[in-house]
Structures are given as C-alpha cells and as structure tokens.
Design brief:
Homeodomain-like_sf; DNA-binding; transcription regulation; transcription
C-alpha cells in the first residue's frame, strides 16, 4: 500500500517592502490632494506627488473609487487609533476626549466624506468595518467621560461627530489652508460647552450615530 502525498499548498507571496511603501505614498498623496482640490484631481497628478508612475497607481487601485475608499478607510483607521490611545490613558477622561477630538479634526475626515458620491459603494465591507470601529470607540471615549461626571449626559456620539465634521471643514468661499488656523480654536469652544455640569438644556434629544447614516 502506497502512502498518498498531500498536495502542497502554495502560499501567496508577501508584498515587497518597496511595493508597500509605494502604496502608502499613493494613499498619502491622494488624501492630501483630495483635501486640497476635491475628488476630481487627476490620478496622474496624484502619481506625480507620490513620486511613482501612473502604472503603479493603477496596479494598486484599478479605479478612482478603489483609491477613494482606501483613503477614507485609512483616515478612519487613524481616527480609531487616536480613540484607542484616548481609552488607554489613565488620567483625566475629559482631557483624553479633548485630545481625541483635536486629533480627529486634523485627519480632515469631513473634507473626504463628501467624495462618497451616489456611485460609490457606501456599504463596501472595508468601509463599513472601519466606520463601525470608529463609532464604537468614540462611544467608549465619551462614555468614560460621562461616567467620570465630566461630560454632560445629554449629548450623543452623533452630536460630537457632526460638530467635529462641521468645524474641521473650511467655511464656504475661504481658502482651505487659511481656514485651518481657526479649527482648533473653535473646537475648544465647543468642547468647553460639553463639560458637566451643563449650563443650559439642549433642545431635542441626543443624536444617535445611526441617525447620521439615514440623513
């Protein structure tokens, strides 16, 4: 009786380090140019800023939607990492929330989200996974500050995300880069209004993050 030999399983080759660096450079350049010029910036301009050839861009991202999705996911992933750092802090819970909000604003996610057009797959698994991770972590950061009695109880994750998005987006008719100098000043004014005890009653009820998705 002869023993049968199990078929060998070939492992998928790991991406080379230089290929990974090129992909990261493309995503970084795309994020910067999307924020500066909007979603219609030519892909060859993105390639030029990234220091790679057009073929390298298309080898990594077959179309514009794939690149936009990667940029949005990368921004949300960094925002989630900032929230995780806030949760890992053992000191003042509200100070951790403040640091997270300012970091999240620097990611300029509000300038990227409008690029998710009607033709874009808003329910792509990667996008939904990144979004759900951010929402859960932000809820935990806010929840810890509420338990500590530092964050007013009548605000929801949706309230926070709406204001961060609005304040980190440059006002209509202003230069994008010049408007940046006001962002953290106005965010701090907003954060001071979140402190407990509240000085006034808010109309309506806390905004749930699911309501934002239905808008």
């Amino acid at each position: 009786m002869t023993a049968t030999t199990a078929p060998s399983v070939r492992k998928a080759p790991r991406p080379r380090a230089d290929a990974l660096r090129n992909r990261e450079r493309i995503v970084t350049a795309a994020r910067e140019m999307f924020v500066e010029h909007g979603p219609d910036v030519p892909l060859d301009e993105i390639a030029r800023r990234a220091g790679v050839g057009n073929a390298t861009v298309y080898r990594n991202f077959p179309d514009r939607d794939a690149l936009v999705r990667e940029v949005v996911c990368s921004v949300m992933d960094r925002t989630a990492e900032a929230a995780e750092l806030a949760l890992a802090e053992t000191g003042d819970a509200f100070a951790a929330l403040e640091r997270f909000v300012h970091t999240a604003a620097d990611e300029r996610i509000s300038a990227l989200c409008p690029m998710v057009s009607s033709t874009f797959d808003q329910h792509h698994p990667d996008l939904e996974a990144s979004r759900e991770r951010v929402e859960q972590l932000v809820e935990e950061v806010m929840g810890r500050a509420k338990v500590a009695g530092q964050l007013r109880p009548d605000v929801g994750v949706g309230d926070l995300m709406i204001v961060v998005a609005q304040l980190s987006r440059p006002p209509a008719g202003t230069d994008c880069m010049r408007g940046d100098r006001f962002v953290h000043r106005h965010l701090q004014l907003f954060l001071d209004g979140l402190r407990a005890p509240a000085r006034s009653a808010l109309p309506g009820r806390p905004v749930d993050i699911r309501e934002l998705r239905d808008c």
